[in-house]
Amino acid sequence: IDGHATAKSACLSREVANKRATYAITVECLKYRTVLAMLAEKLNQLGNQPEVRPSVLWVLLYELLISKQQKIKGGGQMVRLVREHEQVLRATLNAAMEEQGVTSTEGLLPNQPWLQAAANLPRYARVNLLRSTVADVVKQFEAEGFTLTPHQHPTNPNEFAKDELLNDLLQFPPGTDLHDHPLVTSGHLILQDKASCFPAHALKPVEGSCVIDACAAPGNKTSHVATMTGLT
User: Global pTM?
Assistant: First the structure.
């Protein structure tokens, strides 16, 4: 974002109050960016558009026309303008779907294999070894009704697995929501992508090492390295 941070790190920064919702809407808007850009251009053609950051307009258009709720809250000049032209915007969206021969807005997404591949990735969660152990975390999930499976990339809702490469990483089915789980809110479990977990394992610092992370945000890799150095 503006050459300073990734979308994820920006959404998880201290300045963002509702990190989970902000990251979710950001991901959705980026996924539908071609559709939202088309709708924003249509709104611009209608005239009388106030000065507003494109990202704000995209969020409003997504919430009203694409999201499950299909409604926007609050007021303000931009919100009133979008609501005023809702019928025209919906007609534009429907015309685009008809032209492409699809029946849903998902059909308007670029035909890129990585979109489907990303949707099928497991939900990864790293055990914070400064506060718990893999064995203890596994026991808690089993007590909650989860089943530990030997297979990688579990798909059944109540299954989870230990990652075959990284010994402190667990895998859950795609889309598993752990944000409000007690182990996550207490810091015993860190929601962290597998790729983000590799640097600490590749570095393998010995206990007591001094490691400087010169670009830490939000700090998951830094805390991961800390579990290996034994520094809190």
Answer: 0.59
23-26's contacts with Cβ under 8 Å and 24+ in sequence apart are 25/59, 25/62, 25/63
Structure tokens at 58: 């995209």
Residue bearing tokens 């558009």: 49
**Half-sphere exposure in the Cβ direction for 129 (13 Å, CA):** 14
- Best CA proximity match to 78, nearest among 35, 46, 34, 32: 46
**Nearest alpha carbon to residue 66 among 110, 35, 43:** 35
Establish how many alpha carbons lie within 13 A of residue 16's alpha carbon, considering only the half-sphere containing its beta carbon: 16
DSSP class of 107: G
Which residue reads 């830094």 in tokens?
222
Instruction: List the pLDDT tens digit at each of the 232 positions of the chain.
Output: 554 556 777 777 777 777 778 888 888 888 888 899 999 988 888 776 667 678 889 999 999 999 988 888 877 888 888 898 999 999 999 999 998 888 888 888 876 665 566 667 899 999 999 999 999 999 999 999 999 999 999 999 899 999 999 999 999 998 788 888 999 999 999 999 899 999 999 999 988 888 888 877 678 888 899 999 976 6
- Cβ burial of 143 (10 Å; 0-12, 13-18, 19+) is exposed
Cα-to-chain-centroid distance, residue 3:
20
